[in-house]
Amino acid sequence: MKKRIFFYLFSMCCTFIVNAKNIDIYPTNWWVGMKTNSIQLLIRSTGEAFSSADVLINYSGIKVLKTHQFSNKRYLAVDILISPDALPGNVSIEVIQKGKKQKINWSLNSRRPGNGTLYGQGVNSADFIDLIMVDRFSNGDPTNDRVKGMRDQSLDRNQMYDRHGGDLQGVINNLDYLQGLGITTLWFTPVMENDMMNRTEHGYAITDHYKIDARYGGDTKYKELSNQLHQRGMKLIFDAVYNHFGLYHFLEQDQPENDWVHRWPEYTQTNYREQSLFDPYGTKSDQKKMSDGWFDKIMPDINQDNPYMANFLIQNCIWHIETFGIDGVRLDTYTYNDLNFANRCNQAILNEFPKMTIFGEIMVHGVANQAYFEQNNMDTPFKSNLPSVVDFQSLYYGIIPALTQPFGWTEGVNKLYYTLSSDFLSKNPMQKVLLLDNHDEPRFFSVVGENAEKQKIGFQWLLTCRGIPQLYYGSEVLAKGFKAPDGLVRADFPGGWATDSKNAFTGKGLTDDEKSTQDLVRKLANFRKTSSALTTGKMMHYIPVDGLYVYFRYDATQTIMCIMNTSNAQKEIDFQKYDERSAGFSSGKNVITDENFSLSKKTSIPAMKMWILELNK
After folding, report:
1. Whole-number pLDDT of residue 545
2. Which of 111, 191, 273, 315 is deepest in the core (most CB within 10 A)?
3. Could you give the CA distance from residue 50 to residue 24 in angstroms, rounded to a whole number?
């Protein structure tokens, strides 16, 4: 009789402990042996509300520190501590809904090997980045062009703002091309889920931070790509977005509280004025509008002062790096974030991945304005710990005016000279990411009037100046276009679709100018890989004279002389004028054409040409 009563009571208890349905947990897993071992779990029910804030975890090495229930009873936050001696395994987490215990399975995993060597390696001046919009590069798997149940079902390559079908398999299929071009590192615009109604091709309206978009191939394909890159000795950059997410993100559609994003009495857009953050005469209202205003009505502005939201973002970035084997992090819209939060997040990433490269999108005007947001040599009340930036100043006030303005005291190539001369403001100019164009900027070829020679000069500067060069997919074959009205800056890579008549991967259908520009990039980028002067050397430049700009990259074993003629007439080169760096050398070999020059003789460089000479004794 006693046995039957015991069995009955045991059975009754079991009916109250069932495997959870319609419950998600973020982060979706964690790892043993992490420095970040104090984790805040966000538990969300998409069904019944939690009737109690009580959470039970009976797992050796995990301690529940605190739980919190929000006004939206479908959410719980659970602070846990993972001890150094915890072992990998399946963790059972029990929560209560309507008096019933629900069991959630959560994984505690072993870390991937090779932090700092096989991943988390960082990106440096020896690398060459290619920025790719996955939807516009290559369609390797047409079966995922549309995914049932997702809001955006568009698929029309004739419409620039519809989806076109590019995916991660398309990138994998063309890794030989990218590596052969001299690329060492791939950076994608965000590949996380963007389940929005339209305009999902760019990736910046994230709706789930813990899912890779199924239209790109999902988590499995992203891991495959990462593995293949690292097997080739290449690297992967993650585009992180802290400032905003998509309107259909579950944290907006089903808010834990009303303060996880910035709320205004009526829609308020950012003023896009970074000056308000450091202006000694600025107002707090302007600062607030800059940092808390929304980018767009479909992109809620994240409130990073909310500690739960802040933890969610920081943990997700660490999770993404460890899960997918990331080597560098690019931080979107950096100037619009709460800067104290940004410092905290940067430090958390570097604590876990000491060799990680972090660079911010600082799309501002003015070298000092840009330097304010990075590690700098300025005495200001706020000090940023951001290691690196995308160097828009050397684009806006450097190479563009150098090739589009007549030479003058403050115009033309002198602007490039002035801008680079301001590197004294930055802690490490060699970590700045150089660019000619990207997904938000006009194609450089269009900016310089579709002049192939100017485009070639741009690439020669990009691959020889200090910093980390970044290509934007397709510019190597003279992709053109402005942001408006046609949006061609995000056009498809030729050859990425089976029906394309032109194929930049194979060279089919390319014009002579397209092919010669692609060849120049390939030759110079691969030369750069083994050039110590260009990858890690110092820089010296001379004041430009009448449109002629000369600079050197050098170290103890190699000297590279770069001669840029931005005028409309040929210019005489007297090598003896540059003897601070040319002394002791007798000749120079053009690394593109293989032509040799005697440094004891004067020569002339044609109009609108650039030479890159490796000096020899």
Report:
1. 98
2. 191
3. 13
Per-residue confidence band for 308, with pLDDT thresholds at 50, 70 and 90:
very high
Homologous superfamily (CATH) of 129-534 is: Glycosidases (3.20.20.80)
Strands 587-590 and 609-616: antiparallel
H helix intervals, 45-194: 168-173, 175-180
Mean pLDDT of 384-396: 98
Preceding omega of 406 cis (within 30 degrees of 0): no
User: For residue 21, what pLDDT is reported?
Assistant: 79
Number of other residues whose CB lies within 10 A of the CB of residue 361: 22
CATH topology of domain 15-109: Immunoglobulin-like (2.60.40)
15-109 and 129-534 share one CATH topology?
no
Give the pair of three-digit tokens for residue 139: 């369609």
484 pLDDT tier (thresholds 50, 70, 90)? confident
Q: At residue 76, what is the residue type?
A: L
Q: How far apart are CA 419 and CA 403, in angstroms?
A: 15
According to DSSP H, which parts of 209-283 are helical?
218-231, 250-253
CATH 3.40.47.10 is right for the domain spanning 538-616: no
Q: How many other CB atoms sit within 10 Å of the CB of residue 384?
A: 22
451's tokens: 């002049």
In angstroms, the CA 318 to CA 349 distance is 6
Residue 49 near residue 66, CB atoms below 8 Å: no
Angle at the Cα of 463 (from 459 to 467), degrees rounded to 5? 125
Span 241-266, pLDDT tens digits: 999 999 999 999 999 999 999 999 99
User: What order do you get walking across the sheet with 596-598 strand by strand?
Assistant: 538-541, 548-554, 559-565, 609-616, 587-590, 596-598
The per-residue pLDDT for range 551-610, each reduced to its tens digit, is 999 999 999 999 999 999 999 999 999 999 999 999 999 999 999 999 999 999 999 999
d(CA 235, CA 184): 6
Q: Tokens at residue 558, please? A: 């190699």
20-70 pLDDT, tens per residue? Answer: 779 999 999 999 999 999 999 999 999 999 999 999 999 999 999 999 999
Q: Which residues are catalytic?
A: 332, 361
The full set of domain ranges for the chain reads 15-109, 129-534, 538-616
pTM of the model: 0.95
Q: What is residue 181's three-state secondary structure?
A: coil
